[in-house]
Write a structure and sequence with these properties.
The protein is α+β, with helices and mostly antiparallel strands and 355 residues long. It has one domain (4-353): ATP-grasp fold, B domain (D-amino Acid Aminotransferase, Chain A, domain 1, 2-Layer Sandwich), CATH 3.30.470.20. Helices cover 36% and strands 23% of the residues. A hairpin with a 3-residue loop joins strand 1 (26-27) and strand 2 (31-37). It is globular, with a radius of gyration of 20 Å.
């Protein structure tokens, strides 16, 4: 296991962004994407940590954990639905099949919990009982298991941001509002034209099957898969693909199984192995995404790194092999060997020479 001192020493070198000599880079919350042609994309997973739809920090080794853990899960679930993963040329990189992302995020929830504004418990605690099109009874407790997992779709924050920007341009409103996800019901996904009914119900079935597989594997590791976010898209040939990532500490909530029941009965928060503790730390300072985030100490980000690495090892049963820092020189060298980008070899050699 990597030491706390090693993580602290890596803090200044955590990967905030990439600047590879490839055209048409697109930067998401966590991943930088570079189209490769031939319907392939290079994704580089940075160390950026986002919560409340904002980038809050860079956490050492987080990108490597996400990239390698997602690749591992893609292999464990390939029989459930096809996914976009093709190869992992570097600990932080994935060559993937290109797909047009669907405009909804598919969240599957097995428990009523959460502190973000789209979370079930947050809405329930405000007094709402009709949430995401489901009717919830009185008397539920935070972190209680649902009778069965449910699908709760949301819009994507970047799509909401574009909508707000268009409104701002038309009406002179501020255009710097945060890009929050917005809740949908399954009926709205179809009625408002996000997806056709056939595609949506194929996605719902796949999401529930993926969640069941994830819960089974997590249970063997002594964990509870509480809830998770999936993203789907359509390849050029029409195939529906699972894209982005799956069952990572970024996209999923995990609790320690052996202490859950006792802590729930005592009204205590479950032991978590994801970034929920980061959200809770901000929520304790009354921050849920609006305005300037409060300053947090380096200790929070070191603890986050340790948790990400621990859950990787628990789920996969493998030791975490630390990739060399700084990342970009290593990444450039590894990408020189990637068949899909051989046309850029001279560009890479030139860039490496100038490092």
């Amino acid at each position: 296991m990597i030491s706390t001192e090693q993580i602290r020493a890596a803090l200044p070198f955590a990967l905030n962004e990439t600047n590879l000599p490839l055209p048409n880079k697109r930067a998401g919350k966590v991943r930088d994407a570079y189209p490769l042609g031939d319907d392939k994309i290079l994704f580089v997973t940075t160390d950026r940590l986002s919560a409340f739809d904002r980038i809050l920090a860079c956490v050492p080794y987080k990108g490597q954990v996400l990239n390698q853990l997602a690749a591992w899960w893609f292999e464990q679930t390939r029989d459930v639905i096809p996914n976009h993963a093709l190869s992992v040329p570097d600990p932080n990189a994935l060559v993937a099949r290109a797909a047009e992302p669907f405009r909804v995020e598919v969240v599957v929830r097995g428990y009523i919990t959460g502190v973000t504004t789209t979370a079930l418990w947050y809405r329930y605690d405000l007094g709402e009982r009709e949430i995401y099109g489901y009717r919830f009874p009185e008397g539920l407790k935070k972190n209680q298991a649902l009778p069965q997992p449910i699908v709760t779709p949301t819009t994507k924050g970047d799509a909401v941001a574009r909508h707000h920007a268009q409104r701002a341009e038309m009406s002179n409103l501020r255009d710097d509002m945060p890009a929050h996800d917005e809740r949908l019901t399954s009926a709205q996904v179809v009625s408002e034209g996000y997806l056709d009914a056939t595609t949506w119900y194929r996605v719902v079935d796949a999401a529930l099957d993926l969640f069941q597989r994830g819960q089974q594997i997590a249970k063997r590791a002594g964990l509870i898969l509480v809830d998770t976010k999936y993203e789907f898209g359509r390849a050029r040939d029409g195939t529906i693909l699972l894209i982005d990532e799956i069952h990572t500490p970024d996209s999923s909530r995990f609790w320690k199984a052996d202490s859950y029941a006792t802590r729930f009965e005592n009204g205590e928060e479950p032991e978590n192995f994801d970034k929920e503790f980061v959200r809770l730390a901000y929520a304790q300072k009354n921050y849920r995404g609006d305005g300037e985030p409060p300053h947090m100490s380096d200790d929070l980000w070191i603890q986050a790194s340790e948790r990400y690495i621990t859950i990787y090892e628990m789920l996969t049963g493998k030791n975490f092999d630390v990739g060399a820092y700084p990342i970009e020189p290593r990444l450039m060298e590894n990408l020189r060997r990637v068949r899909e980008i051989r046309d850029w070899r001279l560009v890479y050699e030139s860039a490496i020479t100038n490092l």
